[in-house]
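Feature request, filed as a ticket because there's no other form

It would be nice if the structure record came with a short human-readable summary line next to the tokens. Right now we just get the raw output. Example of a typical job, pasted below so the devs can see what we mean:
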Amino acid sequence: MLGFLPPIARGVIAFLLLVINTLFWCTLLFALALVKLLLPFAAVRGRVDPLLNTIATAWVACNSAWMRLTQRTSWDVQGVAELKYQGWYLVNCNHQSWVDIFVLQHVLNRRIPLLKFFLKQELIYVPVIGLAWWALDFPFMKRHGRTALRKNPKLREQDRETARRACAKFARVPTSVMNFAEGTRFTPAKHQDQSSPYRHLLKPKAGALALALNVMGTQFHSLIDATIVYPAGAPTFWQFLCGTTPKVIVRARALPIPAEFCSGNYEGDSTFRRTFHRWLADLWEEKDRQIETLLQR
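Raw output as currently delivered:
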């Protein structure tokens, strides 16, 4: 509707609408979160958590509204109409930009339960939104370097325990657990440093997926394998706000989760670990071919 405006004007309007939307819904979110904090009882959580998720879902819906208002982006989305809102899902996707989160929220909102991400510990200090993530029980993970892990292997177990506690909370209310298996955003430099065997992807990391399946596997309805493609190149968040992203392609499909992955010992069983890595590698090879095909259209 505002596509006739210059990109900078659209970016400013979109940013202001995002801020207003965030402040409005976070005011309600924090009020309910305070109730949960002061009355940490299971019965209270059982009533408050669904309301918190409803508020977050409304925030996402309003974000979609300003996106439609300010952008001229063409959306090519397939595979989401068949998804069912009820139940729990494990969502896996390639990762290129912070825009990916807004894209996934836009196309999956109210088609599956609220997406919840594993976040870096530092993000809890992001003004307003960091507290919102905390209130919604998003798990904050500390990233330890290889040197620190070698010196203190217990640090690895701390992150596992954080993930276990988060997944236990997810089990109370239908949730979609989001995972970017690459662990970081794709860049040509990272791709080269890794000597990645894939043309458009970094090597996937299996640990977070395996842990989520071990804790909640039997509860997940299915794995939603999502692929995001930006034919003109991955945009920055500011470029996305300005509406200069000409096209976004999203493909999603629901896949069954092998039953053995819900009970295997990823850390202690080398045979299970190899099987899991092969399964994930097969998904990644297919995703890489899919991206190549979509880019050549």
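Something like this underneath would help us a lot:
The CA atoms of residues 12 and 236 lie 15 Å apart.
Residues 7-38 form the longest helix (32 residues).
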